[in-house]
Amino acid sequence: MLACKTECSNHTFTAVLKSCANLSALGIGKTVHCHVIVCGYGLDLFVQAALVSFYTKCNELGAARQVFDEMPERSLVAWNAMISGYEQNGLAEEAIGLFNCMREAGMEFDSVTMVTVLAACSQLGDLGLGRWVHEYINVNGLRVNTTIGTSLINMYGRCGDVIKAREVFDSLNQQNVITWTAMISTYGMHGYGNEAMKIFHLMKHGPPPNSVTFIAVLSACAHAGLVSEGQLAYASMIQNYQIAPRIEHHVSMVDMLGRAGLLNEAYQHIQSMNDIKPNAAVWTAMLGACKMHKNVTLGVIAAENLLAIEPHHPGHFVLISNVYAMAGQMDRVEMVRNVMIEKGLKKQVGYSTIEVDNKTYMFSMADVSHPETDTIYKYLDELMERCREVGYTPAFESVMHEVEDEERAHALRYHSEKLALAFGLLKTREGSVIRIVKNLRVCEDCHVAIKFISVVTRRKIIVRDKLRFHHFEDGSCSCLDYW
C-alpha cells in the first residue's frame, strides 16, 4: 500500500498494529506509529486503542500509558488493553490503581474488565477488592461463564478463601477443564491434597484432564506428601492420556519425592529425564529437599548443577549456604558468603503485606517506616513474651548464618510477617481472620512463632508465602509442618 501510495484509513492502521502486537514486532510497530501521526490519525480512538494494545504486548508500558493519557476520550477497550497490560506484566498495583481511576470516571465494566481485575487481585492477595468485583458481577447480572468462574476460583484461592472458591466452583452451570484444574490447584496450594485428589477423581465424570491439570495434581501431592497418589497420577498421565511429561511435571515429581525424604529416588528421576534437560527449577527442588533433609552429598551435586545454569542468582547461593549451615559446615557457609560478596550478589528483600479496612500495608524486616512503629514493636515484644511463657523457643539456627552481624539483633523477632501480624492484631476485631501475603518463603522461626501466636491470641492466621498457604489455628498449621 505504501509503495503504491494508496491512502491508509484507521482500519488499515488498527489491522497492522494488531499484527505487530501479535508478533511483538516493536520496531515495525513504532514505524507504523510514525505513519499514524503523519497521516493524521494520531487522535483516532480506534487507532489509539490499537496502539495501547500494541505497546503493552511489547512490554513498552511507558509508551502505552503515554498514548492512553493523550486520548481525548477513552473507550472501554482502551481502559481494558491498559489495565490488562499492567496485570500481564506483573504490575498488579498499577492495574488496580488504573481500575480505581476507571471507577471514579464512572465507566461501566464488562467481563474483560472483571477477569483482568480479578487476576490482579490474585497477584496481590487483595480479597477486599476481589469480593467487591464478585458483588458487582452479581448485582449487574453479568453472566458467570467458565472464564469469569475460573477467575473467581483463582482469586479466592490465591486470597486464602478456599471455602468461597469451592462455592463458586459448585455454582457453575458449565465447567471445563480449566475450571476443574483451577479448583485442584487451589486445594493444592493450601495443602489440602486429599481434597485436590477427590476433585481430580471426579473429573472422570467431566472433561478429560490436560497437561496443566496434571501439573496441579502433582503439585498438590508434593505439598501434602501423597507420594503413591502422585506416582499413580504421573503413570496415568503417560499411559492413559498419552500426555508427554513437560519440565513442570518433572519439577513436581522431584519436589514430591524430595520432600518425602526419598532423595535417591528424586535424583534417579532427574537422571531418567532423557528427553528433557533438567533446568534450574528441577535442581532448585532437589537442593531444597537436600536442605530439608540435611543431605549434603546430594545437595552439593544439586548446587553445582544449579550454579552451572544460573551462576548469578542470589537465591541459589542462599539455599546452598543453608544446606551447609544445617550440616554444621560453617567454613563453607563463610565461603559461599564471600563468593556472594565478590560477585556483588544480594539476597532478595523480604516483605509482607496485610489488608486492614480496605487498605494494604507493607512491612519489611526491622521496618521503622510505619507511623505507629513504636506501638507495633511494643505489642510484638509483649506478644513474643506471652509465646515464650507457653513454650515458644526461637529457632536461631535457621537464620543466623543468613544475615550480617549488625542485623542479628533483629533477625528473628522483627521479620516482616511478624510485624504485619502484630499490626493486624492491633487493628482488627477479636475473632476475625488475619491474612498476610509474603513475597518469600516463610522462615522456620516465623512458622513456629505464628503457631504459638494463634494460641495466645485465639485467632486464625492465614499466611500466603512464595510457594503456598499456611492456615494457623489453635497451635497447628494446615501444612502439618510439611513445607
Protein architecture, described:
The protein has a domain at 351-402 and 409-477. The protein has 24 helices and six strands. The chain has a six-stranded mixed beta sheet, covered by helices on one side. The termini are far apart. Helices cover 61% and strands 6% of the residues. α1 (10-23) packs antiparallel against α2 (26-38), α15 runs antiparallel to α16 (247-259) and α17 (263-271) runs antiparallel to α18 (280-293). It is mainly alpha-helical and 483 residues long. The mean pLDDT is 90. α24 links the parallel β3 and β4. It has helices at 10-23, 26-38, 45-57, 61-70, 76-80, 81-88, 92-104, 111-124, 127-139, 146-158, 162-171, 177-189, 193-202, 211-224, 227-239, 247-259, 263-271, 280-293, 296-309, 314-326, 330-343, 373-389, 416-427, 444-457; strands spanning 351-356, 359-364, 434-438, 461-464, 469-473, 476-477.
Write a short abstract of this structure.
By secondary structure, the protein is mainly α.
Number of helices: 24
Helix percentage: 55-70%
Number of strands: 6
Q: What is the helix/strand order?
A: HHHHHHHHHHHHHHHHHHHHHEEHHEHEEE
Q: What is the typical, i.e. mean, pLDDT?
A: 90
Strand order of the largest sheet: 2-1-3-4-5-6
Tell me the strand percentage band: 5-15%
- Largest pleated sheet: 6 strands, mixed
Distance between the termini: 61 Å
Secondary-structure content class:
mainly alpha
